[in-house]
Amino acid sequence: QVQLVESGGGLVQAGGSLRPSCAASGGTFDRYVMGWFRQAPGKEREFVASISRSGGKTSYADSVQGRFTISRDNAKNTVYLQMNKLKPEDTAVYYCNARGPDAWGQGTLVTVSS
Fold first, then answer.
1. Buried residues in 55-78 as b, exposed as e (16+ CB within 10 A)
2. Across the chain, where does the E strand assignment appear?
3. Within 10 A of 108 (CB to CB), how many other CB atoms are there?
4. pLDDT by residue (tens digit) across 29-77?
């Protein structure tokens, strides 16, 4: 059973950067397409970014395109989300997802102050 643990969230001022990470265990990491999602207070969970099994293909929500970069290190069973030029509207709990087993982490809170 795949387990995912996010870390690296925090409080940052608008315009700043954060790099959450998600460590996987209990499965075959390089077999899974990985994604990041987020859920802001009072809103539904939404897609942020995804990355193919090899890391060669990525996809982004329009709202983060050009500011966020998803990457993975299959040797470390870890996926990252580099977030630059953060905006207050990026404030949310960020979750990683392993698509194959549909596994989710517990989330990491990102708060962007104006």
1. eeeeebeeebeeebbbbbebeebb
2. 3-7, 10-13, 21-25, 34-39, 46-51, 58-60, 68-73, 78-83, 92-98, 103-104, 108-113
3. 22
4. 999 999 999 999 999 999 999 999 999 999 999 999 999 999 999 999 9
If one counts every other C-beta atom within 10 angstroms of the C-beta of residue 17, the result is 11
Nearest in space to 70 (alpha carbons), one of 27, 19, 23? 19
Cα separations in angstroms, 54 against 71, 73, 85: 10, 9, 27
Q: How confident is the model at residue 100 (pLDDT cuts 50, 70, 90)?
A: confident
